[in-house]
Amino acid sequence: MTHAARIFGDNLARAERYHDLLATTGATRGFIGPRETPKLWDRHILNCAVLGEAIAAGLTVADIGSGAGLPGIPLAIARPDLSITLIEPLLRRSTFLDRAAAALSLDNVIVIRGRAEEKAVRAVVEPADVVTSRAVAPLERLAKWSAPLVRPGGQMIAIKGSSAAEEIERDRAVVGRSGITELTVHTCGDRVLETPTTVIVGTKTERSRGGR
């Protein structure tokens, strides 16, 4: 819990309540696999919360395919200065997210039910400074879904695994056509996590076909 205290600071108790929600309701509803429950802190909650290292103060964030709230909810707890929209298509999960945000008193979080690529979602979600995701899709599709939700000059930040560099090399040209360029690999949490979080960061061009 030392790492959690360093990451969440005064909001540690809120992070602990979120952990309990995932370990109980999240597990019984199948949002978290039974083998993942003992690994919730390191592999899921802290892994997502350190994403805040890559995001400047006071920005708006749209988290696509939020699922059980990863990475959006840990990020919202660790960084209450951010305004975060969780976008999740499945009713059971979006309902869980609504209830979790209310139970944790996360005033900086709103939940939108829908898919990032749907026109209805794009119509109600203002272009964000940052669009985040975790384990949603291969980079090619992820950029296509993310680009319309990022403001020009904003960033797509996707949590990825050890193959992040290979994904960039494979999909760079296609991703560029969606309006996301300057793709790079970064790590977050180097000083607090045994296994730092690997992310792909891309910037939305001022003019692109990935706009609205």
State the gist of this model.
With about 210 residues, the chain is of the alpha/beta class. It has helices spanning about 1-10, 10-30, 40-50, 70-80, 90-105, 120-125, 140-145, 165-175, and strands at about 60-65, 85-90, 110-115, 130-135, 150-160, 180-190, 195-205.
How would you explain this protein's 3D organization?
There is one protein chain. Helices cover 39% and strands 24% of the residues. The protein has 8 helices and 7 strands. Strand 1, helix 4 (72-78) and strand 2 (83-88) form a beta-alpha-beta unit.
Explain the layout of strands and helices.
Layout: H1 2-8, H2 12-28, H3 40-49, E1 60-64, H4 72-78, E2 83-88, H5 91-103, E3 109-113, H6 119-124, E4 128-134, H7 139-146, E5 150-160, H8 164-177, E6 180-188, E7 197-204
Parallel strand pairs: 1-2, 1-4, 2-3, 4-5
Antiparallel strand pairs: 5-7, 6-7
Descriptive key words:
seven-stranded mixed β-sheet; alpha/beta; 212 residues; globular; single chain
Oligomer: single chain
As laid out across the biggest beta sheet, the strand order is: 3-2-1-4-5-7-6
**Poorly predicted spans:** none
Helix content: 25-40%
Taking the sheet with the most strands, its summary is: 7 strands, mixed
Radius of gyration: 16 Å
Q: How many separate helices?
A: 8
Principal-axes geometry comes out as globular
Number of strands: 7
Instruction: Quote the distance from N terminus to C terminus.
Output: 43 Å
